[in-house]
Amino acid sequence: MRMRYTFELFREYLGNYIKTKLTYRADFWVEVVSDLMFSLMNLIFIFIVFQHTPSLGDWSEAEVVFVYGYFMIAQGVFSCFTNLWNFGDRYIIKGEMDRVLTRPAHSLAQVMLENVDPPSLIGSLVGLGIMGAAWAKLGLTFNWYDPIVLIVMVIGSVLIYTGLYTTLAAISFYSDSPTGIIPLMYNIQSYGRYPIQIYNKGIRFLLTWVLPFAFVGVYPASFFLERHADRTMAWLTPVVGLIVGAIGLIVWNRGVKRYRGAGS
Amino acid sequence: MLAIDVRQLRKQFNVQKNREGLKGAMLDLFKREHTQVTAVKDISFQIPQGEICGYIGENGAGKSTTIKMLTGILVPTSGHIEVNGYVPFRDREKFVQGIGVVFGQRSQLWWDIGVIESFRLLRKVYRVSEDDFKRRLDELVETLTLGELLNRPVRKLSLGQRMRCELAAALLHNPSILFLDEPTIGLDVVVKTEIREFLKRLNREHGTTILLTTHDLQDIEALCSRVIMLDDGRIIYDGGLEELKARWGKGREVQFQFNDPIAIERLAFLTGGLDVRWSKENELTAKVWIPLEINVSDVLSRVVGTTDISDIKIFETSTEEIVREIYRTGSAETAADRIADPVRDEEAPTAQAEAVRS
């Protein structure tokens, strides 16, 4: 019931988004193009690296590209739904949370819906294409359950991102200006899109158990990579997703109770 | 049934203390000092259904904080709060379904899309059925004359137009309580009057309970049967507007313009036996001060029949003057002393509670 309600709201907000964007059409295309440019740069970076070395810690070029493709899918879905970058500024300091809290839907759902960003999904499509191309190049077998597994994995990965960034955003409820954490996070996050085996132990531990960004990239992608298949870690993706997502939701719900409003 | 029931409500904020200078800033980096500010100090009041209640006070008196606790935005530090049968912050999502909120300084509407699109979205958010929505919208469009505005984007509306749309947006789901935080701020006289008329009508026809904060005392005079006055987080007056005037208004003044010069002694003689005070402005003008117990007409009848008068003006103490006077006399205590019993009855347990706590 509640899920359906939130889903319906999503449709409505999406409709609104489109109406708004139709008035600022140039803006829309600028955003799409800049998103794609950013991904393209990262991809080019991978190609350049592999011009100098045939393999990276036992990972071939196509495999690294495969992982990157997976990462793009998850990243695109995440960016579409969770845009909490300016949450502290906009909702806490400017007090827009007041308005959110006077409406009968979950506050986090509202904040997420108010900031939906469908152009990011184009990045997901491109990621899917990249993954497909790498798939073919690696000559991996295709099983009937692969698409279903992919969907489950992507949901898990998106939950991890969402949970982490929700937690970070919720810190704004406690501290006046937690600026600085989010860019740091964003940097660490980018490590997750390369095979984690190329890093040293410390970073591996960090990316697996502390800030589980490796579950948004190499672990779930390895499910499909026969040579690097690590089923245990792969299947941990949805589990970790649920845990991190739940933590995010709990921190948020507690944080909202501490919201102090702004100005008069 | 009570629409709003508040007892011993308190809200404290932790405020960061910034120490002075570079050294202070460095110290702040490691150990923050906090001071506790009590914005709302154990207030109690009850508002029955269908009442229009004005909530007034100077900036920083705690009005907005109270409203935000009543609407479920802020969680109170302590005390009992029940609105519409709900504890606002606990069952927030269910609770807000039954209330409407308008913050004069902040828009509820989406900036870039047409007003009607915002309304449609709110219909979904509040789960209003299509039929109810149509009926309600038609009514609001008519009473607030929104017809032409519906298809314009919000950012292209004037403040007055926007305010009317905000009101409609807050009422689409037919709430039984409407909270208004400075609804007429920055509006011109015509729009102010329109909005007041609309609110009165809403209250009359739908029995909507209305609680509004305002700095414009004309809002209060036009709308409210009851006033709650707040100063420094405490209620210093809670009662009817007429009583407020009666207690604080110091009487009325009548100015006479005579056709012929007249001696003040003669005037005093005419009103002999009445406790009035005459003063002379100039040869032809005199003023008489009449305390509230005495009817103005008694004084007039004695003067008018026997003298040749060209003009009469009656000055009543305006609410604004009364309020200014109350604030001028300062703290809640002195005000409470000066206002008669009902308020003091409420203040007394507060004082006791505070004694117990400390």
Automatic annotation (TrEMBL), chain A:
Stated name of the protein: ABC-2 family transporter protein
Membrane-spanning ranges: 28-50, 65-87, 121-142, 148-174, 203-221, 233-252
Organism of origin: Cohnella nanjingensis
Transferase among keywords: no
Domain of life (superkingdom): Bacteria
One Pfam family in the UniProt entry: ABC2_membrane_6
Entry keywords, A to Z: Membrane, Transmembrane, Transmembrane helix
Family annotation (InterPro entries): ABC-2_transporter-like (IPR010390)
TrEMBL record, chain B:
Coiled coil, from the record: none
GO molecular function: ATP binding; ATP hydrolysis activity
SUPFAM superfamilies: P-loop containing nucleoside triphosphate hydrolases
SMART domains registered for this protein in UniProt: AAA
Domain spans labelled ABC transporter: 24-257
Keywords on record: ATP-binding, Nucleotide-binding, Transport
Keyword presence, Endoplasmic reticulum: no
Record CDD domains: ABC_NatA_like
InterPro entries for this protein: AAA+_ATPase, ABC_transporter-like_ATP-bd, ABC_transporter_ATP-binding, P-loop_NTPase
Claim: ATP-binding is one of the keywords in the record: yes
Biased composition regions of type Basic and acidic residues, renumbered to the chain: 337-347
Positions of region (Disordered): 337-358
UniProt name for this protein: ABC transporter ATP-binding protein
Species per Swiss-Prot/TrEMBL record: Cohnella nanjingensis
